[in-house]
Amino acid sequence: MSRFRSFLMSVVALAIVLPASAADVPLIRDGKPVCVVVVPPGTLAADGDEKAYRKLPAWEQMPEMKRRLLRDSARDLARCLGRMGACEIEVVEGLPAGEQRLPILVGAVAEPVFGPVGISKAGFYGFRVVADPQKGVGLYGESEHGTSYAVYELLHRLGCRWFMPSELGEVIPEGKNVVVPALDEKRAPATERRGMTARTGDADWFRRNRFTAYTGGGMLACYGRTLEVGGPQGSLERLVTAKQREEHPEWRLLVDGKPHPHLLRWTRPDVADAMADAIIAKIEGEFATAKAAGYQLSFGLVPGDYVLPTEDPEERKADPEPRVWEKAAGRWSVTDRYVLLANRIAERVAKKHPGVTISLLGYVNCIMPPARYEPRPDLFMTLAPIDFHRHQPMTDAAHPLGSALLDIVQGWGKQPCRLGYYAYGMNLAELTAPCPFITKWGTDIPILMESGLVAWTPETMNGWETMMPGYYLSARLTFDPNEKPVEILDDLWQRFYGSAAGPMARYWQHVDRAWTESKCYAGSGFGYLEVFTPEVMQEARRLVNEATAACRTPLEYRRVKLVDDSLTLFERFMKMREDFAAGNLRTLDRDLAQWKSSLVHLRAIYEPQKAFSPPGLHPDGIAMAYINGQFAPAYEDGARMDREFARLGKPLLEWKWRHNPGPEADAVPWAAADFDDRDWPTTHVVRDTWADLGHYFSMTDEPSGRSGRMAYRATAKLPAVPPGKRAYLWIGSTDGRAKLFVNGRHVQYVVPEKTKQHEAGTALDAFDGSCRPALFDVTDALTAGDNRLTILCERYNLNELGTGGLMGPVVLYRDK
Question: What is the DSSP letter of 495?
Fold first, then answer.
């Protein structure tokens, strides 16, 4: 932060009410405008046919999008200045002859008066802010994007803020005088690209917080002068056609000794040639016009959403020695294979079309820095650390993965390629818990900036009622890393919450500490009982109540009320988790239905704020989709079981457990009725997750190629089952396979309803499912008295949520 900016931030409240000095530039005096906003001719033109516009290719939309960006920025400037001085500021195209008002020259009309911008940033994002008592104010950049940044730079210095979408998030100071100290600064954002998932905010919020304006999306997006083609996952595989795979079976990756129908061998030169030829054909075909227009082309070489199998003998030849083990994914790293492929493609493409970038995604077992092949400078690597440090900063030494993420980021920072970061800007797979990411982003983003971060594009999913501080903090730090997180947040608390700033700051910081100080490493809501203890929830409620009492204006109250409503909804969510963890199932379906109704109601109330997960990413809203997929099946079926059947004994919540690193057969002897499990540790199967038990996303540091196996044992003291009645063992929720033994006897799972794989009544060796309940008929295996229960669980897929095995209570029932 410059010395002038530091000074101006400290006196901004005075700057709009004190008389101007000789060196100041007055914009409004005594509530009357002395300025006019001037934009280039054509800027204020009416929009054309919107449907036709949206059908254009991304690069053809760009000129119109830039005009709108300039227009909307200029109108915002006039509106905000008018709000500040309680008057109206006019916006005109071109400076009229004889104009006596001080001009605020926006965009290209400023350069003839003040000279060249004098600063450049890739993407043409450099900008200049000039305030001269004689010439007026100049706000302009080397593109419309840079000009927009200049506009909001001035408004930011005058105290304007946009903390969340809608007028509820807007802060505009008010006074009779608005003056700007004389200045001339040339600036550029620290990163070339800053964004969040588009549906998280609205166009106004993104523009006002100086995120990178873009158009298009999906397989085609345009940022500044960069046209990004084929970025989403799976774009790598799509470069090779099904016909080519059929004609060249040697191109297909061997998995378990057989050619995979879809996956490819990355180390073959002919595979790289085929992919390069596909890219070259696109450059010379459908994107020839864009290239001729001066757009920088970037082609995505992004694998699908999988952990790439690693044991193909031909592919292993490209691995470094020693091989690099990717601990979170539980597989060998294939980064060097990936870099080898990308280098070959980039070299071939560059010979015909210099300047084209090949974009990569560092994901799962492609994320470790290369150990053998150095990436070319024209590669662009975006890290997507889905398996790492979900809530804790990357410097947290107590994390199960230690310094792994820090090492990855700093390792890539030493490579010659450019670096992007696809962070997960929320608690992945559950969105209704307060999750401010204050410590995480305040720690991680400066490290990323020091490592040469070029693009910040976190995955976000609405959640302004739960995640606003982190969203706003990331917007500021990725634009200007010289700012201090504590100062940004102090500014937020004071300007946004006003009289309630103290208790609201303590609320958000309290919740943030609950995340960072807990030993919860799982995603979604499965570890919440570790984070949001009754003590944490009670203190959160006390602080929000204190903030509500401190409010002095309707606007302050509305802002606190949003958090209050969010916390109330989450308190009800946690009540269901506590009941589930205690085996209190009877009313869970009704409680869940009421909770869902409240979510829909709050979504309607706060639609302008993009809060409470409105539809978009999912027809019912992504928060509702997560609840329906991960919690509703167990809650609804548990309530049904409790009403339709009679319980046999207490619910089984505490289980002995033991990790099995070998094949399932190794654990079968542990199922014997007389097996001695006294030295096994105990886990609560709802409160604890595999990640919390020290088995993070993989189960072992050994390259077993499996995601993990666990054995659970418990003893149930039961009465005799009445003659003619059936007895059942109900498992509330699992992640993966669950194979049941009762008193040493294997009990098969019988499919209750027809599925895509099985007919109803089919007897299977084990239940197989994720976040689903399972019911076993155990009538013939139970005895009156002590019964030894063993469940062998296997999580065979990578699960970035850190769960596995038993995730719900186990209850024994009989027919009524």
Answer: I
